[in-house]
Specification:
Helix content: 25-40%
Number of helices: 6
Radius of gyration: 18 Å
CATH superfamily: FAS1 domain
Strand content: 15-25%
Number of strands: 11
Structural class: alpha+beta
Largest sheet: 7 strands, mixed
CATH topology: FAS1 domain
Order of helices and strands: HEEHHHEHHEEEEEEEE
Shape: globular
Number of domains: 1
Strand order of the largest sheet: 4-3-11-10-9-6-5
CATH class: Mainly Beta
Length: 226
């Protein structure tokens, strides 16, 4: 499956100015950030979240996703598929010594995944305007803490109209030990934070705020089998 949303110069430009223009990017063009409906209803309008909606239904979390004044960092269908195919399927193949074993979404044990999905739900509004490069820890609905920050991306700095612009993205992180800087080469791989960027941020629904995590995320931050 090839991702249908790719990083581009336009995405960088939008990310850089989202806090002042109050726009967000969808399908390659700018849109009003306000959606006249709930967060769950927004997800149902976009095919990128078909599997996520099924997961919400299977775990009975619709009301929590739609709770007032909350924030949802939505994993896309790609993130869930990455989890099923790259993690669950490969682990079971190794356990059962069957290289042809196929695991589908419907084969998952949805009970334990309830708290896994709650890790992306927060009982407060988390907006770009209130974030900075240092970030802060926020308590998610699963009872754990996630570090959320707004960081520069110097690798994509560009010049337009005589101005040099460094785009900024929201980063969603599972901290391993203490918060470590981005690309800290002195931190061993097994101790590095698990971090993913938001490919779309600042969608305002009738009940809260919605950010969309990048397609290459693996749901639950699960690690691929070695």
């Amino acid at each position: 499956m090839k991702p249908i949303i790719k990083y581009s110069l336009l995405l960088l430009l939008v990310a850089s100015f989202a806090s002042c223009k109050k726009d967000y990017l969808k399908g390659g063009s700018l849109h009003d950030p306000k959606f006249n409906g709930s967060t769950y209803e927004y997800l149902k309008t976009n095919a990128l979240f078909d599997t996520l909606v099924l997961l919400i239904d299977k775990t009975g979390l619709k009301d929590e996703v739609n709770a007032a004044n909350n924030t949802f960092f939505a994993p896309t269908d790609y993130a869930i598929n990455n989890y099923v195919k790259k993690v669950v399927q490969e682990r079971k193949r190794l356990e059962e010594n069957d290289e042809n074993l196929i695991v589908n979404f419907s084969d998952l044990d949805f009970g334990p995944l309830k708290d896994s999905l709650r890790a992306y739900i927060f009982q407060e509004k988390i907006a770009r305007d209130n974030l900075n490069k240092d970030g802060k820890m926020y308590a998610s609905k699963d009872g754990e803490q996630r570090h959320i920050s707004l960081r520069d991306d110097p690798s994509n700095t560009y010049t337009t109209g005589g101005l040099t612009i460094t785009p900024q993205y929201i980063y969603f992180s599972k901290v391993i030990g203490a918060v470590d800087p981005v690309d800290n080469i002195d931190v061993p791989d097994e101790e590095k934070d698990l971090r993913i960027v938001s490919q779309t941020s600042g969608i305002i629904t009738n009940n809260g705020m919605l950010h969309v995590l990048a397609n290459n995320h693996i749901f639950t931050f699960a690690k691929e089998p070695k």
